[in-house]
């Protein structure tokens, strides 16, 4: 529970930082989290997203659950971006084996999974 609370606090700090930098009047932030996958019944990243308020300091927080399915997840996020027109998109994810919040520093646009997704599909070294 301590790590979960830490994740919630860190996410709030991240959102507060975006808000303080922008100071926009009618800003929207889309925050996403994947549904549970593999052998996990709960995805802590999604649980953090669900617990966010709908508004922080006048900024609308749009929460979106993403299905853990290669053929669907990007479409769901793209559709939400088109419908909502957010100023920022913050994707929250779970990475097994990590014991803290670790922002991604290097992006590699490849689908490369050790396990299958929730539709039973596994992709290895495939460009996104």
Automatic annotation (TrEMBL):
The keyword Protease applies. It comes from the Bacteria. Keywords: Cytoplasm, Hydrolase, Protease, Thiol protease. GO terms for biological process: proteolysis. The keyword Protease applies. GO terms for molecular function: pyroglutamyl-peptidase activity. One of its GO terms (cellular component) is cytosol. SUPFAM superfamilies: Pyrrolidone carboxyl peptidase (pyroglutamate aminopeptidase). InterPro entries: Peptidase_C15, Peptidase_C15-like, Peptidase_C15-like_sf. PANTHER family: PROTEASE FAMILY C15 PYROGLUTAMYL-PEPTIDASE I-RELATED, PYROGLUTAMYL-PEPTIDASE I. Belongs to the peptidase C15 family. This is Pyrrolidone-carboxylate peptidase.
